[in-house]
Automatic annotation (TrEMBL):
It comes from Anatilimnocola aggregata. It holds the Pfam family SBP_bac_10. Signal peptide: none annotated. The chain crosses the membrane at residues 20-41. Keywords: Membrane, Transmembrane, Transmembrane helix. This is Type II secretion system protein G. Residues 42-320 form the DUF1559 domain.
Length: 340
């Protein structure tokens, strides 16, 4: 009897084990499953990041319309600092809309009346210009709505406090649209406000929804709010002639707070659209040539296009292959050309 019991126990122990071949087969199956599932998991994560990027633009759309409800105009693309002062770089539309993006507390602490310095948006102090108060307030402050999660561009500017240091004001991955480079010289309305300029920094237009030194009324968007771009992504790289990656956002490294000046014709955190979506040639006039060029493109990290916010608050994916003239029609608010 003892022999049979012992023999049975030995058989049970043997039946519970795995052979080396079986173990290798199991490992191989797990490897195949991981290989099959990993791309799907990565795709799901990227889809979530892309949705978050779109939602940020939708939040900007709500902010712009809430601003319009309160002020009866869209926010300016940027407003200069103290009138008549030198280097009076003012606040961008991203600063102007802070109270409407759940950042009212930050907005209320800013010196936007330029009592501490001529500039309000140039947030560093080198002894002759800049606003140390605003820079010290904004440095290192992360504002979720400003950043597309899919972007790998740097989050922080290199300036933004007194003295400048490695962590400055947050850089946005979105840009306001001030118009297109092909707006007619004599537009159907508001001739003095809409005409294009050809400057040393490229073509500049005031025919869009978010314009420097101007607060656009909805009634001025005669092409229709659903046919007029207000903002878009700028979340990808451009490339130099050597193939090196170059950051070609319209804040030029100063961060989201930077607005225009009355001293010069530079635009910050807005762009006049001149080139196709996802144009990445840094050497083109108005992109990287010269410095502070004002035609930096609508572009993203996604293949095939970029997200755009329309003046009615809707967000749509703008196809990369669409005709440049069609894109220009979307960027002008009153040129009489409604894009199909």
């Amino acid at each position: 009897m003892t022999y049979f019991v012992l023999h049975r126990r030995l058989r049970l122990r043997k039946s519970r084990g795995f052979t080396l071949v079986e173990l290798l087969v199991v490992i191989a199956i797990i490897g195949v499953l991981v290989a099959l599932l990993l791309p799907a998991i990565q795709a799901a994560r990227e889809a979530a990041r892309r949705m978050s990027c779109q939602n940020n633009l939708k939040q900007f759309g709500l902010a712009i319309h809430n601003y319009e409800s309160a002020m009866k105009t869209f926010p300016a693309g940027g407003q200069a600092g103290r009138t008549g002062a030198a280097n009076n770089y003012g606040a961008s539309w991203l600063i102007i809309t802070l109270p409407y993006t759940e950042n009212g507390s930050m907005y209320n602490q800013l010196d936007l009346s330029a009592t501490t310095a001529a500039a309000t948006g140039l947030t560093y102090d080198n002894g002759t210009m800049g606003n140390a108060h605003n820079g010290n307030l904004l440095r290192g402050k992360s504002i979720k709505i400003l950043s597309c999660p899919s972007s790998v561009l740097s989050k922080w500017g290199l300036v933004g406090h007194s003295p400048p240091g490695p962590e400055g004001v947050m850089r946005p991955t979105y840009v306001g649209i001030s118009g297109a480079s092909t707006h007619p010289n004599v537009p159907p309305s508001d001739v003095t406000g809409n005409t294009n300029q050809h400057t040393a920094t490229g073509h500049q237009s005031k025919a869009g929804a978010l314009v420097s030194h101007k607060y656009v009324r909805i009634s001025e968007i005669s092409d229709g709010t659903s046919n007029t771009l207000a903002a878009s992504e700028q979340s990808g790289h451009c490339f130099s002639s050597t193939g090196a990656k170059v950051d070609c956002r319209s804040d030029y490294g100063h961060g989201f707070s930077m607005g225009p000046s009355t001293d010069n014709n530079r635009d910050w955190n807005i762009t006049t659209v001149r080139y196709a979506i996802n144009e990445r040639d840094w050497g083109k006039m108005g992109i990287g040539n010269p410095s502070y060029a004002c035609n930096r493109p609508i572009q993203s990290v996604y293949p095939g296009g970029a997200n755009g916010l329309f003046a009615d608050g809707s967000v749509r994916f703008l196809q990369q292959g669409q005709a440049v003239q069609t894109l220009h029609d979307l960027c002008n608010r009153d040129d009489g050309n409604t894009a199909n």
